[in-house]
Write a structure and sequence with these properties.
The protein is an alpha/beta fold. α4 packs parallel to α9 (197-227) and α9 packs across α21 (510-524). The radius of gyration is 24 Å and the shape is globular.
Length: 615
Amino acid sequence: MAKDVRERSIDPASQEMLDVCQRTGLETAWDRLEKQQPLCGFGELGLCCRNCNMGPCRIDPFGEGATKGVCGATADIIVARNLLRSIAAGAAAHSDHGRGVAHTFKLMSEGKAPSYQVKDKAKLESLMKEYGVDTQIALAEAIMAEFGKQDGPLQFTRRAPAKRVELWRKFGIDPRGIDREIVEIMHRTHIGVDNDYVHLILQGLRACLADGWGGSMIATELQDVMFGTPSPTFSEANLGVLEPNQVNIIVHGHEPLLSEMIMAAATDPAMVEMAKKEGAVGINVVGMCCTGNEVLMRHGVPVAGNFLQQELAVATGAVEAMVVDIQCIMPALGALTGCFHTKFISTSPKAKFPGATHMEFHEETAIETAKAIVEAAVVNYQSRNPSKVHIPSIKTKCMVGFSVEAIVSALGGTLDPLLGAITSGAVRGIGAVVGCNNPKVVHDYGHINMVKELIKNNVLVVTTGCNALACAKAGLLLPEAAEMAGEGLKGVCKSLGIPPVLHMGSCVDISRILVAAAAIANALGVDISDLPAAGAAPEWMSEKAVSIGAYVVGSGVYTVLGTVPPVFGSSAVAGLLTSGAKDVVGATFAVELDPYKAASLMIDHIDSQRKKLGI
């Protein structure tokens, strides 16, 4: 029975491709979610434990069955341990991304990665000064040492206001080393180790802070050094960026190390000439997910979509190669690409996929591997079946690339205009809206409606990841979108020529938001928790999002989640996260599935902070 595609996505290009998939019998994430119904109630509440082989154990939420696991673990212990293991996985993923970038930076500094070079010398010199070193190689070694530190502190944590650092010290959550905190989570959550839910969650906060102010920030900073710090540029977004008469290559995942090389290879005149000999007009590289965000904000490379559009892009029948690195890549792509001519190419030593051709990427031979990948895509153009091609003619212009440096530049070189706008009330506050897609939520519905509601109420929105791409597709990343904003925000945007929603990059670039928040707090002489600001993840789904949400709250920012985290099997843990954490880190989580109500919660919090600041 055909499903109403409007119940799956609000994006018109996605609706069009979902209809195509239904008619041709192609399975998507929405179909697989439907086959999972009903979802495990114990799992949704976080009440199941597989941490040893005496179980698996599950706690009856109604108190009529088991109230403890075989070892005696209560609901509070099980829920807390499960939450921490999600934080560990998420922090490991983002921080290992940072480690990969740091490793490449070190090889480049040693002359062993000739494909790479320093693109932002000013940021390089700034980082050297921050670390107190005199040479590039010394900086590389100091940054690599952050991962294995045993006693801290992590250098970038000292960008936070002094009040915030003192709070972290007071509660024992100042990160000592990136890897140490992740390992300690895995140790503490082993059977028979840490069984105090408050103590467990404090360690979770320490690990996620090591991610946000450590691994993720390292990734952002060094990517800027090697590939250039983003500045505002225009591009296009949605499935319509695929070209019917060109070799279409999608770069998908999260690391820009390879995608930067793919860009260089695809513009090589010899490669373009090869494409023409194969009958194509040229080579069209487009992005997907956060790898897409990386090349979008630095080079204006068009982006085909966010997480839930990866299958729909393949289903257009017009993709010669889906080139992936790490994270958020559906293993279902292998079977789906088998229905078309599309080559599914995996590249990371850490990630192989069923049905993929593995062309392993190493920094020392980066450009050679990139050329081989592009050549494989070019040769594959001849295999395209025109009868299977269906590209929605839907794409939207967008203005992207608002790094912290770009925002300060747009303000005339100082934060004073923004602070003045906040103080006067023209800008009510700042909303950081980020996160994934989740088929449990109508695709992009939570993202777009929350952001529209915020800007309508004069809240300046900063965005990264899949939310940023949703906003790009909806036209919210254009200066003209100021017409949708309240009068105060509209005036500020028009005077500066900026959108009311500022694209700040990929998921790891939430670290840019932390840096901006710290800079604003320091300028006002307050802690981050005192700012008229709030965060949200309307459609989150990944373990990385758990770590992100926790480090945002741990940094002092009230955060609203749009899908239910598996913690409500423990009233104690849920209460700590939504209420008790206020007394520890000055911020809490809230859970609200309705994006309009969630926006209201954020606005209420912003107003309360304004009142406390006397503005």
